[in-house]
Structures are given as C-alpha cells and as structure tokens.
Amino acid sequence: MHQVRVREMLGFFENELTNNILSFWIPRCEDKVNGGYFNCFDNQGVHLVSQDKYTWSQGRFVWIFSKLASMEGSTFKKALQKQFLMLAKSGRDFLMAHCLIGNNDWRCVFLMDETGRPKHVDGWEQMDMSIYADCFVAAGLGKYAEVAFDRDAYDFTKKLYLSILGRVRQRTFNTLPYPLSQKYRAHGIPMILSNTTKELCGAAARFDPSFTPELKENIKHFTDDILTNFVDENNVLHEIITYDNKPVDGIFGAHANPGHTIEDMWFMMDASDILEDPSYIPKIAAITKKTLEIGWDYEMGGILHFCSPEGGEPTGDGGDAKDEPMFGQLINGWSEKLWWPHSEALYTTLICWQRTGDKCFLDWYKKVFDYTFTTFPNPDREIREWIQICSRNGLPQDKIVALPVKDPYHIMRSYILIIESLYKNTFL
Q: Quick one: pLDDT band at residue 184, thresholds 50, 70, 90?
C-alpha cells in the first residue's frame, strides 16, 4: 500500500474517532455526580432512556478511556490525554467502590443504579449474572493500572482475575443474558479470558513481574483450546461444543458466529505476539478468510449475525437445544447486520493483511469498509455515532442487542487499534 494511502487512512480514522464518536460520548456519558458513565441510549442515540449502569459497559469505558490516554500514534494533545485519564479514573473509582457482590466476595454485580446500588434484573434473582461483566471490569482496571501506575487498581484486578479463573474451572459462573446448559461449552469463554489475560500482562509487568509467566501460560492454554476444540478441519470455528469437546448435533452446534470469530482472530494475533510464536499466524489467517467467506451476505452485503458452516442461513434440527436462550436468537436473528462484527472486521482484515501480505485481506478490508460506512454511521449530524442494529437489508431496527445500552466499545477500540497499527506499520 502506498505511503500516501496509509496517511489518508490515518486521517480518516482519526477524524472518525474524534469528530464522530468521541464528540457524541463526551460529555454525554459522564456522571459528574456519582462517577461512572451513562450509556442507556436508544439505538438512534437521541434519548437516554435510563440512568442505570451495567457493570459490563462500565468496565469497557474504563478500558477505552485508559487506552485513549496512552495510545500510540495519537494526535491528541497532552491536555486531552489528561482528560481521558480523568474520565477513566471516574469509572475506576466507581467500579472499585460498587461492583463487587460484597466485601471480599470477588464476583461482580451485573447491574447498578446511578449511585452504584446493585439492582436485580427483572426475572432473575442472582446478582452476578454474567462472568463477561467480571472480565470487562478486570480488563478495564488492568489497563488503567498499567497506564496510571495505580497499584491499588492492579491488586483489585488480580484478585478479581483469579476469582474469574476459579469460577470457570469450577463451572460456577453465569453467562446471562444468554445462559448455557452445563452440557455445552461456549467459545466466548476462552475467547474473553484470552483477551482479559492479555490486558493484565501490561500491568503485571509493572507491578508483579513474577506473575507474567503464569499469564502467558494461560494465554497459550486459551488459544490452544480454541484452535484444538472449537475449529473444525475446514477452519470453521463453532460457537458451541459439548463440555467434553465434541461437536454438537443439529443447528446449535453447526452454526458459526462470524463476528465473534473475526474478533477472536485479532485476540489470537495478540496472543501470538505475547507468546513470541508466529507459528499461529497461518492458522489465524486461514480461519479469518474462511469466516469472511461463509459469513458474508452475498445477496445484500454485510456480515451475517449467524451463518451455517457453508454460508448463508443456519439450517438443521434444533433437538434439545430448542430450550436454550440462544436458540431463539440464532433462528430469528441470523440475518441481522450488527455494528460490532463490522467494526471488528475492519481491524482484523487490516492486521491479517499486514501480517501475511495476502492481498485477499486487503480486498476484504475494502469490502467491509464500503458496507460499514454506508450502513452504520448515523446520518443525523447532531448524532453521528453508529446505529447499532440493522435488518438484513441494512435498514435500522429499534431492537436491543444483549444489553439495553448503546455501546461504543467495539467502534472506538477498532479505531484506536487501526490508528496504532497504521502508525507503527513500516510503510511510514
């Protein structure tokens, strides 16, 4: 790629990040009274429909603002970087004060009111509804600890991280809003544990170097688990397998989740770097290529929410899986076009092209780019932040995806990582 083109891309994504995404969230997201962040906006971004705070999103915001305060290749002035770190500290303080079930009970509540009081989600008794929320808190506070040289945040993060690992090993964790029967395993668990562990590595290098070898061993375990147990001989990554690592019959086991797979492939690129083992890269590239081929909607464009291993609508008998909460979403929402798989694909295709030199990834990047920026950015110039969910034909839908929030995490993280990768790339 010509150097001029690289600089044009840098300018494009810096403008998108600063003038279209950050301009929406700052100061909209700030709770200057209680700390933490508001993000229960409707899909159009017009109305704040609730001041509740989902722990899941609070942790993500801490990561984003911490990363913005320290990103490489940034054109942000020091005063703005300081503002980002202050915003990150607001979430750090809020979470460390309120996110745990109780004193020395290292499980995170799922939902809080604006002041930090825990709340029940309608229809559920447990407070620790999703271990994914715990992971996002650990990742966010781990990044903050690294960037802000905050030993207290690191100590909190390490205790939470060890609790997460213990619960996963003992199978005493929840994954709401989509719980899964214990006879199954979900790809999302080793996937998020890999990314969470990676985020602790930077902080451990500052405060706890003796812990780093264990973290690297964990990353290798999670990466090898996915590549060995969830990926078939055709390089299709299956979201669900049995607990004893066997394929699941019918549509529940046969389907793929292109967005999750594409996101995980750059997690694995990170793992390859941390482990200093480039032998993973050909397999990562092959899985990415296969996922784009089967996940792309060749009729209407864009990446499908779910697909069959051959591409297109998932098919097959539901069997016992008909009682699983994810089954309904798989059947009814397979053709939806969501914002987050497309933002993840922008970065993954670019990084795969940079690492392999295979032009097909540059071609996929261009295809994803064209669809993404004609579909998701809000045409209302007072809003600009992305519409999160569209129907198969690309028209906006007023629906909830997992949580009743508007979440900038995938978009901003993708933009940040693209900017960093372009800045560090040898073309410059």
A: very high
pLDDT at site 19? 94
Contact between 356 and 285 under an 8 Å Cβ cutoff? The reply is yes
Q: What number of CA atoms fall less than 13 Å from residue 308's CA on the CB side? A: 11
Compute the distance between CA of residue 213 and CA of residue 37 in angstroms, rounded to an integer. 34
Each residue of 168-185: b (16+ CB within 10 Å) or e?
eeeeebbbbbbebeeebb
Whether the Cβ atoms of residue 74 and residue 67 lie closer than 8 Å to each other: no
Task: Tell me the C-alpha distance between 143 and 106, whole Å.
Answer: 19
The C-alpha atoms of residue 90 and residue 360 are separated, in whole angstroms, by 43
State the pLDDT at residue 317.
Answer: 84
Instruction: Examine the pLDDT at 280 and tell me if it is beyond 50.
Output: yes
Q: Look at residues 316, 331, 187 and name the one whose alpha carbon lies nearest to residue 262.
A: 187
Residue range 13-33: average pLDDT?
96
Crossing angle for the helix pair 409-424 and 339-356, nearest 10 degrees? 20
Contact present, 401 and 338 (Cβ < 8 Å): yes
Query: How many other C-beta atoms are found inside a 10 Å radius of the C-beta of residue 229?
Result: 17
Residue 164: closest CA among 207, 188, 132: 132
265-295: string of b/e by CB count within 10 Å (b at 16+)? bbbbbbbbebeeeeebbebbbbbbbbbbbbb
Task: Answer yes or no: is pLDDT of 427 > 70.
Answer: no
HSE-CB for 237 with a 13 A CA cutoff: 33
- 190 cis-preceded (ω within 30 degrees of 0): no
Query: With bands split at pLDDT 50, 70 and 90, how would you rate the model's confidence at 401?
Result: confident
Nearest-10 crossing angle of helices 339-356, 258-274 = 40
* Helices marked H in 296-408: 325-332, 339-356, 359-375
Bridge partners (DSSP) of residue 390 are 337, 396
The answer for residues whose C-beta is within 8 angstroms of residue 381's C-beta and 6 or more apart is none
Q: Which fold has domain 3-424?
A: Glycosyltransferase (1.50.10)
Nearest CA to 288 out of 280, 279, 298 is that of: 280
For the whole model, what pTM was predicted? 0.96
Query: 79 pLDDT band (50/70/90 cuts)?
Result: confident
